[in-house]
Fold each of these.
Amino acid sequence: MMTTTQVKENLNLFRCPLCGGKMRMVAERSIVCVKNHCFDLAKRGYVNLHTNPVKTEYDKEMLKSRSIIIRSGLYEPLTDKLAGLILDHACGPHTEVTRILDAGCGEGSHLARVIQSMKGRSDRRVSGVGIDISKEGIRIASKEYPGITWCVADLARVPFKDDSFDVVLNILSPANYTEFKRLLAGDGILIKVVPGSEYLIELREFLYRSTGKEKYSNERVIAHFEENFNTAGTWDIMYSLPVDKHNLEHLIRMTPLSWGAAEKNITEALKKGIDSITVDLTVILGKETRGRGS
Ligand SMILES: C[S@@+](CC[C@H](N)C(=O)[O-])C[C@H]1O[C@@H](n2cnc3c(N)ncnc32)[C@H](O)[C@@H]1O
C-alpha cells in the first residue's frame, strides 16, 4: 500500500528542484509543479526529487551497518543533547509546531531519535523532514520511520521553500550554508555536528597506521561554519562505549574511514578486536545574522 500521508501533510513546504515552482499532488502518486515537472512517490511514501542521480559510496551495506550501530545506542548522548538544544533554542511559546530538517540524514535514525527524545520531555508538536542524496538511505529511513517525511534530494538544491524550517540539523554530513540560510525561518537555528580529533580514534589508529592520517582536526570545518553563521554555542561531547565483535564489523563498515584503509588493516582490526570505542563530537549551534548568500 502506498503511504502518502507524510508528503501530503507537508506538501505546502515543497518547491520544484528544477524551476522552484509550487507543487501539487496528483492521484496520490506523484507531485507535480506548475511547469509539469513530475516526481513519483515510492511505494513506501518517500519522494525522489534528485534530478541528477549519482553513484554514491553510501550504499545499502554501509547504511544498514550505520543503522545497526545507531540503534545500538552509540550516539544516544548526542541525540539527547540535540533534542535538549532544540527544545531550549527553537521552541518558543509562539512556535506551534517545531519544523526540523535533517540535511544529509543518511538512514534516518538520528532524526527519529532526536524527535523521540524531544517527545519524551515535552508535549510540543514536531514535524520532521529528512533529505539525503543516497536513495538507499532514504529507502531504509522510510521503512523504519514512517512518521517522518523522507526525500531523496541534494542539499545543494533543496526542494523546499524559503523559511520552511525552525531547525536545520547537519550531522557528520557536508553543508551548504547558502541553502541552509534560505531554508531557515527568521529566528531559526542551524545545528552542525562534526567529529572531534578523538572520534573513533581506536579504529582510526588501526586503519591508518603509519599513513600520516591517524590524526584529524575539525578546525577548517568549524572556521567555515563561523564564516557563514553566528555561533551561539559550541559543545564537546566525548565518551567511550564497549564494542563486541558483531558490532565491530558494523562499526568498520559504517564509517567512511574504512574507504581509504588497506584491506590488511581492516582484517587485523577484526582479528584483534577493539575493547571500546571513543565518540568525540563537536556540536555547533548557529544563528543567521548576516545577509543571505554570504
Ligand atoms: C557520514 S554520512 C552521515 C549520515 C547521517 N547524518 C549520520 O550521521 O548517520 C554522510 C551523509 O551525507 C550524505 N550526502 C553527501 N553529499 C550529499 C548531498 N550533496 N546532498 C545530500 N546528502 C548528501 C551521504 O549520502 C551520507 O548519507
Amino acid sequence: MTDTGSSMGTPSDPSRDRPTYAASAALYTRARESLAGGVSTAFRMFERPVPLFVREASGAWLVDEDGNEYVDYVCGYGPVILGHAHPAVASAVAHAAATIQQVGAQHRAEVELAERLCAVVPAFERVRLGLTGSDAVHAALRLARAATGRSLVVKFAGHYHGWLDSVLTGTAHLPPGLPETAGQPLSALADIVVVDWNDEDVLRRIIVDAGDRLAAVIMEPMACNAGVIPPRAGYLELARELTSNAGALLVFDEVITGFRVAPGGAQEVFGVVPDLAVVAKALGNGFPISAFGGRADLMELVASNRAMHAGTFNGGGVSVAAANATLDVLLAEDGAGYAHMRALGLRLMEGLVERAAAAGRRLVAQGPGPVFYTWFLSDGGVESYRDHLRADSAAYARLAEQLAHEGVRVIPTGRWYLTTAHTGADVDRTLDAVERALLRLDA
Ligand SMILES: Cc1ncc(COP(=O)(O)O)c(C=O)c1O
C-alpha cells in the first residue's frame, strides 16, 4: 500500500492522444466467430468503445492488447480486493496447483478455510463451499425451502442473485415477476415474489400476505447491484424480526459485500445476523470460490444430505488456497486494508462529486468506500431502486467510455470497486482523468 502509483509504470503523458483499440477490436471480431457474442459472460459485451482484451493485470493496473494502461476500478467485477496478481495469493495458488489441485477428496486447507469462515462471518456456524455466487444462492434457497417445508421466497427489486432461472427477475427494466431472458420458464418464478426494498410497510404487508407459505426473504443487505444503497435505519432489524415471527428464514446475499465492506460483511457492519448467508467474489481475490452457510441446526439438513448440495469442483485445492491466502492478507494488521480502501474510496467519491460540479454536472456518489456507486441525478439522493432508475444512465455510460480513453477503467453502469493495491496517486490520476472526460461528455 505505497503511494507511488502503478507497479507497471504510468501512462507516459496524461494529455496524450486518444488511444487506439485496434488489437482489442480485432480480437473481438475474431472471438465472435467461436465464442458466442465474443464474450464469456453477458455483462462484458456492453463495454465501450470495445470489450477490452486484457494482456496483463497487476496491482490496481491493467494493460490491454494495444498496450493501453488503465487504473482498474472494475476489479474483475468485484472479486479482486487485494489487487491483481497479489504475490501471496499467486504463490499459494502455484503451490496448490503443483500439489493438490483437484483430488476429489477432503484436504486440510478446506477445513482451515471453513473454520475461518465460521469465525469471521457472524451467521456462519457451518458452511459449504461452492464456486460461484449463483450456485451458492441456489443452495441456500433450496436449504431454506427444505428447512421450512415452504416454497415462497421474497426478493427485492434491483437485487441480483445470479443468473439462474429461479431468481432472475426484478433486476432489469421489466415488470417484476417476469422472466428476464429467453428460455427462462415462467414456472421457474412461480415461487418468488419481488417487492420494493427499504420500504417497511411493503415488507410488513408481504410477510403478512405470504403467511405460512413464506420460506425465506433474500436480500442484498446493502443493495449493490442497482446502486450501492444502504438499508434505512431499522430496516434490517425489522426484516429480522418479521421473518423470525413468520417462521421463515432471513437470507443475506453477501456475494458483493462479503469480505468487501468488512471481514464479516454487511451483517457485521449493520449488526443484524441472518439465518443463512452467501459469500463469494472477494473471498478468493479472483479465484472461483463461494460459500453458503448459517445456523448449525439448518445446515444439518445439508450435513445429512436431506437437502442435497454437490459440485465436482467445490473445495478444489487452488480456490481454497486462494481464499486462505486472501484471508491471511485481508485480516492481517487488524484489517488495515479496509481502512485504506475506505479512506481512498471516500476521497474518490468526494473528488468525483467536486469535479463533476466544476463541470456543471450533478453527480451523486455513495457507498462504504471499498465499493461505491455514482449517478448523474438532477436532484435528490438514492435510497431506493426507483431513485436509482431516475439517473441519467446514458450520460454515465458515456463518461465510462471517455474514462477508458483517459486510462481509467470503470463499470459502465456506475459501480466502482477498490483494492488494497490502489494508491493515493492512482486516485489523483483518476480524478484528473475524470475532469478531462467530463469536458468531452457531450462531444
Ligand atoms: C449480489 C450477487 N449475488 C449473486 C451473484 C451471482 O454471482 P456469480 O456471478 O458468481 O454467479 C452476483 C454477481 O454479481 C451478485 O452481485
